[in-house]
What we know:
Number of helices: 16
Radius of gyration: 26 Å
Distance between the termini: 68 Å
Order of helices and strands: EEEEEEHHHHHHHHHEEHHEEHHHHH
Largest sheet: 4 strands, antiparallel
Strand order of the largest sheet: 1-2-3-4
Strand content: 5-15%
Shape: globular
Number of strands: 10
Structural class: alpha+beta
Amino acid sequence: MFVFYPTYLYFTTAITTAIIKYMTLNFFIQKHQNRLKNVLYLRYDHNGFKVLFSTKTTVESNQLNWITNQGRKKINNTKPLNKKFIGHHRVNKDLNEQYSHILDIIYNAKKLGDLNPKTVKEMYERIHSQSEVQTIIEGIDVMISKYRNELSESTVKNYDNNLRHNITSYNELKKKDHKLLDLNKDFELDFKSYLIGQGKAKSTVGNQIKYLKSLCAKLKKLDIEVNEAVFSFERFNSNKSIFYLSETELKRLRSSNPKSKKLEEQKDIFIFQCYTGFRISDLNRFNVHMISEDRRFIKTRAYKTDEQIHIPILPEAFDILEKYNFKLPFIAEHKYNKAIKTFLKELKFDRIIESENAAPLHEVCTSHTARKTFHSYAINTLHLSATEVSKITGTSPETINKHYAGADIEEIARKMRG
């Protein structure tokens, strides 16, 4: 059963003002019996003939933006998905690009004098020939479009957010759009080194390698050429550790004064993170417009998960905002992580982190340590429940209970002393 409501589209060119009559291009869903989710398509109709273009997106009816046109219900072509669809911002953008792309093909077909839907579909498929997929980012796009219905939402996020973000950042640093054939041993070593330099835990680096190998395995099944060397990439054998600053260390850091103004700024940003739980990807997007009118909350959409988050502004975080007139100093992520290590070393934060090869805190601390510190502070000092902290940060209550609840040794000691 198709849900489809047509609206006529008109084209005007510099050569002619002729109207393309009897053609429509609209989003619609194909409903399947005994299936909660339906496939979202684009359908092009002309003179009684039609073709389908799959968006590779499965939806529930209540995840679509419905509008009424002349008393008839249809899906909004400009913004098909609503907030109930996880990642609706990114997916709506992709859907709109596909819609516009098909319109461009129809326009080119008109210039050739052949608007037959079959011709338009053939032109579309030639442009999107899998043999033209070369870069890692293009590979991610193809893999998600082909396998979205088979993958869980969390797995899609791992590819579409995490791996895409890390590859894009690496490409920007190297000033090169890396290709699937570039995935050799040199790439493996350099990419791992880059991620470690960004403060990523060995387990996180290992996961990125796992996703790369899985990506290439799926692309290979689609007859897309990849460098076979990628399948010999090795993950780190890591004893993953969870460490963070204690409440005492937080107080000491707030009262400390690094020697340079630049390090003072980076210390303040780090403290702001410790009292908000911001990821670095959200920190770099922060602006005054995210603050509620009563200045009690920061309201934004998390870049990693695309979920709405409301973060209560603690007094320590508000002090930092006031100090910089609500405009935090910006710094690139890799420079920020280096600055964190520098000011912590200067301030002699040298507590040994045993599970990180007995390294001092200042050597292993990164921007993500600040987020972990917030989890511990919220649980052990503010005495929030795991569910409440999860509501603020998006981290699951299970993870919070496992790694942070009652894990602050100083808090345990205070309780034992009464």
